[in-house]
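Example: Methyltransferase FkbM domain-containing protein.
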Amino acid sequence: MLNCIVRHQPIDRRKKESIWLDDFKKNVVSRGGEDGISEKIFEVIGAKNKIIVDFGAADGYQISNSYNLIQNHGWGGVLIEPGYQYEKLQNLHNGRKNVVTIKDIVGFEDSNKLDTHLSAAKIDIPREFDYLSIDIDGNDIHVWRDIQKYHPRVVCIEFNHALPNDVYLLQPKDLNVNIGSSLAATIEAGKELGYELVFVTGPNAFFVQQELFPLFNIADNSIDAMHFNGQKETKICQAYDGSLIIAGMATHPWKGFAIDEERIQVLPSNMRKWKFSGGWIWPKRPGFD
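Written out as structure tokens, the predicted fold is:
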């Protein structure tokens, strides 16, 4: 639309000493090194019961936080998936006495809250089970906050990683909404619930109970020290003449469509001028001085 030269130049403010877990990234079935990060976290804090609760668990294999621990490290737990992939999940763990699979949502009704699912599971789930993995594409924070009976030692939770570090966005508590909350909102919720951030991989934030946090020797776990994802940021800049200019990512990161700069304009083209006749910023209207 405009012949501006626009560059998005995000600054990576991460601190090497804050993200030392990065050296332990490893993929068995994960995509962003989460398998190795999970292993290292439990090497640091020790596993008390080797129980993981994973929802939505999908097929239990692809990009799974539970597969490596169950398959290769002798863990058990509860895996919850409401969708079409549940049959694959069930078949994958069929015959494992220490793994329970559940076809249902984790929601906000008494019948489907996580507390209810875990209380009814056919295996014993300690109050402080080792690992909770939350990946439901939107209401992740809200279901975490709704847990009353349990206090997992480690939580891996998904957030909307297309949002900048300096944006606090908490999506509505509504299972029909899939916006995704920001990392800033997720960190605040974690602190309220008694957790501290220890690492971030792509869209996944890893938290540990506050009393376990000193074991990681992370002096600064502020959001900028821990996370950088500037390449996915979309910024809208405002020009003197009222034009809106896109800097940064101009394509939707998941759906792939390009953002048309002309279609996001608020002012019509004939109003996008710095000054009109007589030096007015807005056109002069009859009857107004």
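The two ends are 34 Å apart (CA to CA).
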